[in-house]
Amino acid sequence: MSDFSVRLLRSDEERAATDLFRRALHIKEMTDEEWAAISGSRQPDRAFGAFDPELIGTTRSFDSEVTLPGGGTTPLAAVSLVGVRADRTRRGVLTGLMRAQFEDFAARGVPAAMLHASEGAIYGRFGYGIAARAKSIEVDRQRARFRPEVPVGGEISLLDLESTIEQWPSLFDALPRTRPGMIARSPHLWPSYERDVRRATTPVTTAVHRGPDGVDGYVTYTVERVKFGAPAVLKIQSFHHSGSDAFAGLWRYLLSVDLVDRITAEKRPLDEPVELLFTDPRHVTVDKVQDEGWLRLVDVATMLDARTYQGEPAVIEVTDSFLEHNSGRYRLSADGAARTTDPADLELGADTLSMLYLGAWRASDLAAAGRVRATGEAALMRADLLFGTRVNPWCGTFF
């Protein structure tokens, strides 16, 4: 263990921290022009640095809120730009940064955090768990044909790059966040999104869908090919909708775009039924399934009582070695959650609880993998129903 200290970064230390993070991920440092372009992306007093005495590690977050099973929301810290200098790894620096960040969340009354992990083996020891998964798909645009009962959809209008940048925040905010795990987009996110689309090498287009009550969906995409005449790929950058008409209408539009051979979309909800739109579902292929959102329950008691449950009660015993105040037994029922001294039906760690919380995994599946210990099959069946959700969780926002 090396001697180091962790504190909030000053504004004049932010660029050095961003450069450190980018070097940790083997990404080239920003130019002055790029740094100026994202000047609005840094929320004050949310970035930490580890010093020895120079900067050797960093993490930051921005304020958001997350949709919970049952439709409610709660404050969330969206964690990003986590990195440790290559010559200081495996010396407790990341642990110190995580602990300081969790203490800050607790002091500000933020009961949960979420991140997108660069590596899958890092964050479980800090109580994060895979709480949402996603799939990447490819559609054979030349062969796919809609089934006759698929909704026709409403009116489509197109936005160019400048209009996309201007209207993106209002388009996103106009749509309900209907899936557990979806988060509110802070104003600090949009400058980075703008930087990314301005760097695109092909035109960026947004198609907006309007139904009887106004805007109910949009998709942003680019079309790329190696050279003219070569197969072209329409790459979906962002796709959000609030109902079946908008979902079908936007896909009808995408398949109508000429000079396109394939359509790809990354990190879509696992249960999004694109293949069911077409007469032959095999014209949609899943390239991969991957973790999409890692959740951490900073205040287990508050978070367990914030979501809804269905079915018969069960008592879970949580072990949280990193935030010990969370350890204990909790009774879950349709009436909510509360601490209890009753015998436990299930035992699990804080990271596994994070995996259960939004409904991405069943307790019985986690028990089969050794992640949950239960008194019997009946207890697992009750837990499957208690934590079950109508739709799969999905964050849908990269940060």
Q: What would your notes on this structure say?
A:
Helices cover 25% and strands 32% of the residues. With 399 residues, it is of the alpha+beta class. A 12-stranded mixed beta sheet has the order 1-2-3-4-5-12-6-11-10-9-8-7, sandwiched between helices. Strands 15-14-13-16-17 form a 5-stranded mixed beta sheet. Helix 4 packs antiparallel against helix 5. The longest helix has 15 residues. The radius of gyration is 22 Å and the shape is globular.
N- to C-terminal separation?
Answer: 31 Å
Low-confidence stretches: none
Radius of gyration: 22 Å
Secondary structure: helix percent: 25-40%
Give me the strand/helix succession: EHHEEEHEEEHHEEEHEEHEEEEHHEH
> What can be said about the biggest beta sheet?
12 strands, mixed
Q: What gross morphology would you assign?
A: globular
Class by alpha and beta content: alpha+beta
Tell me the number of strands: 17
| SS element count, helices | 10
Q: How much of the sequence is in beta strands?
A: 25-35%
> What is the spatial order of strands in the main beta sheet?
1-2-3-4-5-12-6-11-10-9-8-7
Q: Mean pLDDT, nearest integer?
A: 97
Q: Keywords, please?
A:
about 400 residues, alpha+beta, twelve-stranded mixed beta sheet, five-stranded mixed beta sheet, 10 helices, 17 strands
How are the SSEs placed, and which strands pair?
Blueprint: E1 5-8, H1 14-24, H2 32-37, E2 47-51, E3 55-67, E4 73-84, H3 93-107, E5 112-115, E6 129-140, E7 155-159, H4 161-174, H5 190-198, E8 205-211, E9 214-224, E10 233-241, H6 244-256, E11 262-269, E12 284-297, H7 300-306, E13 314-319, E14 328-333, E15 336-339, E16 346-349, H8 350-357, H9 363-368, E17 372-374, H10 377-387
Parallel strand pairs: 4-5, 10-11, 13-16
Antiparallel strand pairs: 1-2, 2-3, 3-4, 5-12, 6-11, 6-12, 7-8, 8-9, 9-10, 13-14, 14-15, 16-17
